[in-house]
Write a structure and sequence with these properties.
With 201 residues, this protein is mainly alpha-helical. The chain has helices at residues 2-5, 19-36, 42-59, 63-85, 101-125, 131-149, 155-172, 176-200; strands at residues 8-12, 15-18. 36% of the residues are buried.
Length: 201
């Protein structure tokens, strides 16, 4: 079964694209569509897509991104609960809101701290050939996932930054279908930002 999942379905720019990558891309697109529309079913889809990408990234020696997928799968359970039962500070049902200035400063500071710490860990304890580039989406995605789970508008800006770096990273690893997916993610993040901003207004 494993051999079938990793068998090439077709070739893009000289690199094989596996059936597993195709399935992960399709599920991921539906997941983001659900997130934009605040449909809670995006969270279980996130679990499935994350487990698929764990296998894909591990095989490509992107250990930071692979470990991140396990985190995504776990935090998706929390996010699903938040969207179903979570409440805002005033006790009302969770809704789209903005970060305060203090919250924004915490987000920037956390990203600035997590990136080098993650990069140093990957450089020291793994055989990855891109520790610092692997570390950026790994670290910053942790923050983005929290913001998404709590329905902060700024989560979309975080995902734009993550997706921009990921496009270059996955191109370097010849994961061309995933490159295309993350390029679409950039556009969808802009759509998500506009849609959530409209709801906030």
């Amino acid at each position: 079964m494993i051999d079938l999942l990793f068998s090439p379905a077709f070739t893009l720019w000289g690199s094989p694209t596996t059936w597993l990558e195709i399935a992960a891309v399709m599920i991921s697109l539906v997941m983001v569509g659900c997130n934009i529309r605040e449909i809670h079913w995006g969270w279980p889809l996130a679990i499935v897509a994350s487990l698929m990408y764990f296998a894909i990234f591990w095989r490509s020696r992107l250990y930071g991104d692979a470990a991140l997928q396990i985190f995504f799968a776990l935090v998706a359970l929390w996010g699903w609960f938040q969207w179903l039962r979570g409440t805002s500070a005033d006790g009302s049902a969770l809704h789209v809101t903005r970060l305060s200035r203090r919250g924004l400063a915490l987000v920037v500071g956390t990203c600035a701290l997590l990136w080098p710490v993650t990069g140093l860990f990957l450089k020291t304890f793994t055989d990855t050939d891109v520790p610092w580039w692997d570390a950026f989406p790994t670290a910053v995605s942790l923050v983005g996932q929290f913001l998404l789970g709590r329905k902060y508008l700024e989560n979309w800006a975080v995902w734009i930054a993550v997706n921009l770096v990921s496009v270059g990273l996955f191109a370097y690893k010849d994961l061309w279908l995933t490159v295309a997916l993350y390029a679409v993610f950039i556009a969808l993040s802009v759509v998500g930002w506009r849609e959530w901003k409209r709801k906030l207004a």
